[in-house]
Write a structure and sequence with these properties.
alpha/beta; Rossmann fold; TIM Barrel; 2 domains; 6-stranded parallel sheet; 19 helices; 14 strands; globular; disordered C terminus; binds iron/sulfur cluster
Length: 485
């Protein structure tokens, strides 16, 4: 029994796009986890990643060669068209191959996916247990009657670690030289870079997002134990010698006790690699001591969904923060030398131009290191999507447009020219912020006495011809271990 998994994330950058930015340079943890479980159960598994291929004819050729019995495809809403195209080719080449679709879109809109008779099964919610059981029953010749299977939520500590090699081996086949398992996306995170997930779900209720993730992962968050995450990091250190990493968790910082235990154990195990994670402005604002601890352990930056600089809008989207907290959180990040990746939306339902201007003025104060603007996009499964339907707001006519790209209007009633201007204006740094940045950079460069000691030692060694005991040792690019008081 052979299973081929298909990653069809080409709606943004198309075929031949591997390694071009984060959309095209990261693995899918969903598929990597399914692969690990299937392999553990004794099945043969491989991957076709459309991002690495030349086009649909190439996919047909590769699929013919792979010749699987079961094909598992993952689908966000934006992946609908490429997944359906792949399925029609699969069924043309091998009608008896069994097609199974899982992921956020079939979970949010099961009936839409099942409308296509070429889809044999969909799995709603998490797939590790249910998909493995399905493949087992197909192997035993007893297929379930219902095409709609409900995933069982697994105990995350009992799952095998994500099978990253599923992706890396496939990418190598197509000539991609892998100096880093995944593509790093900011200068603060050097290669070799990896991504990891410490838990699933989120306890918050932002209406542009929820409740879709509750359908996927259940209400609230299920987190792996710190020991289990540390064990995976040790494996990643041994296997890939990673120099930096990123947590994909929606909001790693929501569980303070977990974070504190993680930081202590991360340092105790001798890890010094810098990392990023996603957080929220209100959490940073209320837990400065936790931010300090994380920065000490190696945190280099946060992704923060500031979303808006206007309190009415923040309230409307149930963001659980305020303009004031957003600004204060950014100040705290700055205090601990943390990089800010600012996610924000323009063109939300009910938002006025004055309110958009509030977002712009907030960004001038926050002065993030990375701007990540989006034009609000209604995502199936969210309460704001339902609001848009009720108020006849939606402009998205094709699944390809379920991307948060700030280049096209996704809802009615927006002045798109104004939004484009706002998008550009929001990213312009004030002169005084540019000066502050230059001063901070210079301070960082010249204020570290250890750097000078090292430089002086190297110069001394060069002058005296000495070497032993001087300069950086082999592997000296590692950061010195932090000493605890
Ligand atoms: C990391 C991440 C990314 C990364 C990496 C994506 C990737 N390759 O996985 C990047 C930055 C590239 C990304 C991009 C986008 N993302 Co994103 N992303 C996430 C995030 C935060 C984590 C994904 C993850 O690894 N989850 C953990 C794994 C284990 O879960 P999973 O992938 O869902 O898989 C499980 C189940 O879904 C199921 N399953 C999945 N596939 C299959 C297949 C089969 C056969 C079966 C049986 C089961 C199954 O079983 C898996 C294991 O339990 C999620 C939110 C979240 N917490 O999940 C958003 C999320 C998936 N992203 C989302 C969106 C909207 C996007 C973008 C469209 C944003 C944009 N730029 O406009 C793009 C689209 C990229 C593309 N396809 O072209 C939405 C999707 C909503 C929707 N209705 O589709 C989510 C849910 C966030 C949200 N709450 O809005 N994303
Ligand atoms: S937007 Fe982020 S914080 Fe809000 S509910 Fe979704 S995952 Fe949670």
């Amino acid at each position: 029994m052979k299973v081929t998994l298909v990653y069809a994330g080409i709606a943004g950058k198309g075929f031949n796009s591997l390694k071009q930015g984060m959309d095209s340079g990261w693995i899918s943890h969903g598929l990597a986890s399914l692969s690990a479980c299937l392999k553990e159960a004794g099945f043969e598994v491989d991957l076709i990643d459309l991002r690495a291929l030349r086009g649909w004819e190439h996919f047909r050729e590769v699929f013919e060669q792979r010749d699987p019995d079961v094909v598992g495809l993952t689908m966000m809403s934006v992946d609908f068209n490429p997944v359906m195209e792949a399925i029609s080719i699969i069924k043309e080449v091998k009608p008896e191959a069994i097609t199974v679709v899982g992921g956020p879109h079939p979970t949010a809109e099961p009936d839409e996916v099942l409308e296509n008779p070429l889809v044999d099964y969909i799995v709603i919610a998490e797939g590790e247990i249910t998909f493995t059981n399905l493949v087992r029953s197909i192997a035993a010749g007893s297929r379930p009657q219902s095409r709609k299977l409900i995933g069982i939520h697994p105990d995350l500590d009992k799952l095998p670690f994500a099978d990253r090699d599923l992706f890396l081996e496939e990418w190598r086949k197509w000539g991609y030289d892998l100096d880093s398992p995944e593509v790093p996306f900011v200068e603060e995170l050097p290669p070799p870079f990896v991504t990891i997930i410490a838990g699933r779900g989120c306890r918050y209720k932002c209406n542009f997002c929820k409740p879709m993730e509750d359908f996927l992962f259940g209400k609230g968050t299920r987190r792996r134990s710190v020991d289990n995450v540390i064990a995976e990091l040790k494996m990643l250190r041994d296997k890939y010698n990673f120099a930096s990493f990123m947590f994909h968790d929606d909001c790693l910082t929501e569980d303070r006790e977990w974070v504190i235990e993680f930081c202590e154990k991360y340092k105790a195990e001798g890890f010094t690699q810098p990392f990023f994670c996603q957080s929220r402005a209100d959490i940073i604002y209320h837990h400065e001591d936790m931010v300090a601890l994380m920065a000490d352990a190696g945190l280099k930056g946060y992704f923060i969904g500031f979303e808006s600089g206007n309190d009415r809008v923040l309230n409307f989207i149930r963001k659980g923060t305020t303009r004031e907290k957003n600004i204060a959180a950014a100040k705290i990040c700055r205090k601990y030398g943390l990089t800010i990746w600012a996610n924000y939306m323009l063109g939300l339902p009910t938002e006025t131009e004055e309110e958009v201007m509030d977002t712009i003025s907030m960004l001038k104060i926050i002065d993030p290191d990375y701007y990540s603007p989006a034009f609000y996009t209604p995502h199936p499964g969210s309460d704001l999507f339902q609001y848009g339907l009720q108020h006849n707001l939606h402009l998205v006519m094709d699944h390809d447009s379920y991307r948060r790209n700030p280049t096209e209007a996704k809802i009615k009633g927006l002045d798109i020219e104004f939004l484009m201007w706002a998008r550009d204006e929001s990213q312009k740094r004030l002169f005084r912020n540019r000066v502050k940045r230059a001063v901070r950079k210079a301070w960082k460069k010249y204020s570290d006495p250890r750097k000078y000691a090292r430089k002086a030692r190297t110069i001394w060694n060069n002058l005296t011809g000495g070497g032993a005991g001087g300069g950086a040792p082999h592997g000296g690019s590692r950061r010195p271990e932090l000493k605890r008081a």
